[in-house]
Amino acid sequence: MQLSCSSLPFHFMFLLFMLILSFSSLFFLLLLFLQWRYPNHKRLPPGSMGWPYIGETLKLYTENPNLFFSNRQKRYGDIFKTHILGCPCVMISSPEAAKVVLVSQAHLFKPTYPPSKEKMIGPDAVFFHQGAYHSRLKKLVQASFLPSAIRGSVSEIEQIVLKFLPTWKNATINTLQEMKRYAFDVAMISAFGGQQDSEMEGIKNLYQCLEKGYNSMPLDLPGTPFQKAMKARKQLNETLRRLIQKRRESGKEIEGLLGVLLAAKDDKLNHLTDSQIADNIIGVIFAAHDTTASVLTWILKYLHDNGDLLEAVTREQEGIRRKIIEANRGLTWEDTRHMPLTTRVIQETLRTASILSFTFREAVQDVELEGYFIPRGWKVLPLFRSIHHCADFFPQPEKFDPSRFEVPPRPNTYLPFGNGVHSCPGSELAKLEMHILLHHLTTNYRWQVVGDKDGIQYGPFPVPKRGLPIRVIPRNKKAK
Ligand code: HEM
Q1: Nearest alpha-carbon partner for 84 in 450, 378, 371
Q2: How many CA atoms lie within 13 A of 402 on its CB side?
Q3: What superkingdom does the record give (predicted)?
């Protein structure tokens, strides 16, 4: 069929009309959908979703993350929305709203991690679960780290400290790396008991490989740290299986978290599977050492920068030292409970450094939170650091002032170990490690920061720049 010249404008007009009609209908449908999904009375929190898809990810990664959060908090308030790493998110920096997410309505917010991290640690690890499986595993892990369970480990941990300290004497050390070695050794005895085993060295090496890949890009290509880490993860499973076999055959009581997990039976008398045991052992060691090492690094930095405080902590520790020498014994659990100033230094470091700046949850259904609507599937991030650095709860928040803990903080404002069902089961062990190390370090050594004194690096936790290189020297006790 041929079109005559006179029919062209008509056809063009008709086409244009149809096009406009289609677009308007689509737009109308979209409006209807949005109206249905986010009705007016269900207000999303204020905030910017940034660019399509990338959202505000680039801003988060190029700005100081603390400024990223605090600037938005100032502009939008304690609950605001953003879009990072391909996900719509709601950030929360009010203690009350954080309590709703983590404690009172915790069942509406499930923990969420990138799939690569889940693969690497193991999908059966306690962190990734909610409900019955989570509470079963959590009870078992918690039971292994209660004060009653760890009080017997003081002398073993002390032996580890006494093994490390002389190697630091008159040397320049990378504080973070040394603290990682210390915290790793403590985590290993918590997981496997004090019994030495030829498999331990292998586990240590595989772990180092795993850790490098954990913080790298999840590229499953030959030679990438990620692929090497996944290989190490498989080998860790095999090594653990051999270790379990040996321990069973030895006929001796199996110590540590491993013993607890192997003995566990549910109400139908089913044991945990091998991969449930492996994922949780690997997961707990993971959660235990980097965190504790980062906090210890900050403690050394703060004590270095606050000379009077270091001397006061040393006096407290010397008082305990005298008692120990008089009684001709080692440090005990009770001693570690009578270190009030050292305890406050640890508390204040946990607040100031806030190494876990936030945690991730995901709304399992549409939720209303303090008048705002959070759609199902959105990530929800309680911002521990913002709460810890809020002047309403901690006056002069940037000042390192352990005396603020002479009175307990307001409820739900102090969350270094989280809150609610997923709170940290290892908090007492972490603090015990810090008390024991500080006892021997402050009474016998002094340290000087080498190079740049200030600056922070993220890897992934915030730590002093370059892991805080220090020169450790014996303390001149006579001059004091
Ligand atoms: C100073 C050191 C530590 C800090 C600051 C820390 C902090 C935290 C925080 C904030 C959470 C909660 C995360 C969330 O709600 O999503 C957590 C969970 C956890 N932590 Fe720690 N932690 C430390 C040391 C340890 C140690 C020594 C262990 C091992 C004994 C450990 C094992 C765990 C486990 C297994 C979980 C997951 C609990 C669950 O999902 O139910 N942590 N930790």
Answers
A1: 378
A2: 20
A3: Eukaryota
pLDDT of 320-367, one tens digit each?
Answer: 999 999 999 999 999 999 999 999 999 999 999 999 999 999 999 999
Q: Which atom in ligand 1 lies closest to the alpha carbon of residue 433? A: 27
Domain positions in the chain: 40-113+357-388
Q: From the CA of 388, how far away is ligand 1's center (Å)?
A: 17
377-404 residue pLDDT tens:
999 999 999 999 999 999 999 999 999 9
Q: Please state, in angstroms and rounded to a whole number, the distance separating the CA atoms of residues 48 and 25.
A: 28
CA distances from 409 to 359, 403, 406, 429 (A): 21, 11, 9, 22
- What's the CATH number for 40-113+357-388? 3.30.43.20
For ligand 1, the distance from its centroid to the CA atom of residue 480, given in whole angstroms, is 39
Choose among 378, 385, 375: nearest CA to 361: 378
309-323 pLDDT, tens digit per residue, is: 999 999 999 999 999
Cα dihedral 97, 102, 104, 106 sign: positive
HSE-CB of 125 using CA atoms within 13 angstroms: 22
Contact indicator for 366, 375 with CB cutoff of 8 Å: yes
